[in-house]
Amino acid sequence: xxxxxxxxxxxxxxxxxxxxxxxxxxxxxxxxxxxxxxxxxxxxxxxxxxxxxxxxxxxxxxxxxxxxxxxxxxxxxxxxxxxxxxxxxxxxxxxxxxxxxxxxxxxxxxxxxxxxxxxxxxxxxxxxxxxxxxxxxxxxxxxxxxxxxxxxxxxxxxxxxxxxxxxxxxxxxxxxxxxxxxxxxxxxxxx
Length: 191
Hints:
The chain is of the alpha/beta class.
């Protein structure tokens, strides 16, 4: 019995040592990548939705595109900052909506179904920079209200596996939606 207790103490000590070493060596891969970028002096913020996705060139579209990209960067450098609007890309199937969003945030992109009734939804968004909520038109009115509440949160509250208590990480993920429509690509923003 004493040997078993000594083994448990050693395992706990080893676990604490690994955790301490990991905390000392931690880094933020998205911040490192963003900090490494060099701007080529070509302004693209206002026109990327028009130039790369074929959206209508309107003042509204330019602003949605600009603020979305600025919010993406802000969420990484200022976790938990307010971001209550979500751009929704609407266009025909296979128009490139999801591909464009994936290109923006790869490898920190996900588009798997978000089951808001499952407590694991908070774990699913950790480490993700851009999460696409696909086929938003399929949500009922009650589900849409729940999605809006979920995406506007500034932090998460959940208990990871093997943790003894809840954690409250500030949100670093941004959300975008997509809807399959019949016409040319349109951009909306939900609040």
